[in-house]
Q: What sequence folds into this?
């Protein structure tokens, strides 16, 4: 597994095809997201994901690590361990209602002793969200890379194409000061420059904004977003 030392700057999420993994690599992705949430139109089985993750590992062999992120929604540590027994991953993205106790429980599984974690959550500048961020920050250990801020959607859990409230991250809320932030939520070739300029995230996560249809990516959109994000997130 690749060693995760920081949150990725460019993450392309919801990949389902080998040609899309290769395009993500070619167009500058630091990470790919493989979705293990069955209701999602971008869901992949652990067996399919294994083939995609192995393509990502070929880039590791060339000395340029690609973070292979598994996206889970309210899955137990046991269920994640079952996926890891089939598909190699470098990072777990928790995109449901998980509490920080999830991190503690995960330590019981050898597969997750050193694997990296990202917690996805909405930011509506309300007390509920503030308390959630504070609770996760207080439990963070060296496996925890940071937060992914997405649009609130209790059903689809990401990849909605809905635009996030970037302005609510300006200035950076105090609750996020100690950990990096990956921005998601309706990012496209048309608005990603504005989103980065306003919210000043540490990285971006794009799913629907690089698609022809759910689960089928557009290499031209990947290239355009990769070029813009790489330039604006440099440094």
A:
């Amino acid at each position: 597994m690749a060693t995760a030392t920081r949150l990725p700057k460019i993450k392309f999420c919801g990949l389902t095809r080998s040609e899309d993994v290769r395009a993500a690599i070619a167009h500058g992705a630091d990470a790919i997201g493989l979705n293990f949430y069955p209701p999602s139109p971008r869901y992949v089985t652990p067996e399919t994901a294994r083939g995609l993750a192995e393509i990502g590992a070929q880039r590791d062999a060339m000395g340029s690590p690609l973070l292979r992120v598994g996206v889970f929604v309210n899955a137990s540590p046991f269920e994640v361990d079952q996926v890891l027994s089939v598909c190699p991953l470098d990072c777990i993205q928790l995109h449901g209602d998980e509490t920080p106790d999830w991190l503690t429980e995960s330590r019981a599984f050898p597969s997750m002793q050193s694997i990296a974690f990202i917690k996805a959550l909405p930011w509506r500048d309300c007390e509920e969200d503030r308390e959630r961020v504070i609770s996760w920050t207080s439990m963070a250990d060296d496996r925890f890379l940071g937060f992914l801020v997405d649009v609130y959607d209790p059903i689809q859990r990401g990849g909605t194409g809905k635009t996030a409230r970037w302005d609510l991250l300006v200035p950076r809320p105090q609750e996020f000061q100690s950990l990096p932030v990956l921005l998601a939520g309706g990012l496209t070739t048309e608005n990603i420059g504005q989103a980065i300029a306003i919210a000043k995230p540490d990285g971006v996560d794009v799913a629907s904004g690089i698609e022809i249809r759910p689960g089928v990516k557009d290499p031209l959109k990947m290239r355009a977003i990769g070029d813009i994000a790489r330039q604006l997130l440099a440094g």
Notes: The first strand starts at residue 10 and ends at 13.
